[in-house]
Amino acid sequence: MSRQHVINPKLSQSFAFATLWAAAGVVIIPIIGLIVYMAIRGARGINWELVSSLDSGLLPAIIGTTALVILTGLLAAPLGVGAAIYLSEYARPGALMRLIRLAIVNLAGVPSVVYGLFGLAAFVILMHFGRCLAAGACTLALLVLPLVISSSEEALRQIPKGLREGSLALGATKWQTVRRVVLPNAMPGIITGLILSVGRAAGETAPILFTAAFFSLTHPIPHSPFDPILALPYQLFVMATEAPGIEESTKWATAVALVALVLSMNLIATVARARLRRRMRW
To answer: Which residues contact 205 (CB under 8 A, 6 or more apart)?
Structure first.
């Protein structure tokens, strides 16, 4: 009879934790190093005049990017959450639903430049929007819609089935159960997924390159959804590729402003999720 080697559970657990920490470090440390390097290089060019000036500063691009992100969220949220509610609560399982979910996953992997070209054809040319805030927001809403649907559906599916059954047993209709029981408890996950998805859109360059952004404008602040905008991603792209006379510190300062905007959105998502989870009923 051969001897069996018994592995110490504590040793195997320590090895598993060490492997996970090493994997996390491989991912996190380069990102932190990049952010620190960017902050050091950009600190030389960041000043109050650069951030707040309407004529030669980043304020118009910050305002344009913020307006673009807000309008994108307003367009993507009702469509994405509504589709997720249907897929999670009303759709019957079958080949058609599997095909729809496969299409959503595939759309999430389509390169952003393809969405930009579609937005150019559909909104700028066909619908005669022109290059403006509305065209860019519609294009970015299509870009993030698969991510919003997936994250919202996952948040809805995490709600225990017993809550639905209890509500229905008390005489509530299907829609009353969804609106008063399922949605409030799934809201932390839905809001987190929405903000993170829209935060991805804040850093996209290709879609707004075709649909919304200009490098310089006589009136840089948009006064309506059909005005063109300045946006930080496109501003940075032009500075790095087509404007060699701009100082390197200004380019790095623009990159820092863009990263700070995206990180602030992630922080908002984290705080919103933590506060909403305290109100959860289960």
So the answer is: 112, 233, 234, 236, 237
Sign of CA dihedral 135, 140, 41, 245: negative
The pLDDT tens digits of the residues spanning 34-48 come to 888 888 877 777 777
Which residues, 6+ apart, have CB-to-CB distance to 179 below 8 Å?
none
Calculate ∠ Cα 196-78-200, nearest 5°: 20
Give the integer Cα–Cα distance in Å for 260 and 252: 12
Q: What is the C-alpha separation between 256 and 41, in angstroms, rounded?
A: 9
Closest CA to 222 of 99, 62, 83: 62
Q: Is the pLDDT of residue 1 over 50?
A: no
Sign of the torsion formed by the C-alpha atoms of 247, 251, 256 and 258: positive
Q: Which fold has domain 44-278?
A: MetI-like fold (1.10.3720)
Number of alpha carbons in the 13 Å side-chain half-sphere of residue 185: 17
The predicted-structure confidence for 230-266, as pLDDT tens digits, reads as follows: 888 888 888 777 766 777 777 888 888 888 888 887 7
Where do the structural domains in the chain lie, given as residue ranges? 44-278
Question: For the CA atoms of 136, 209, 216, 68, what is the dihedral angle to 10 degrees?
Answer: 30
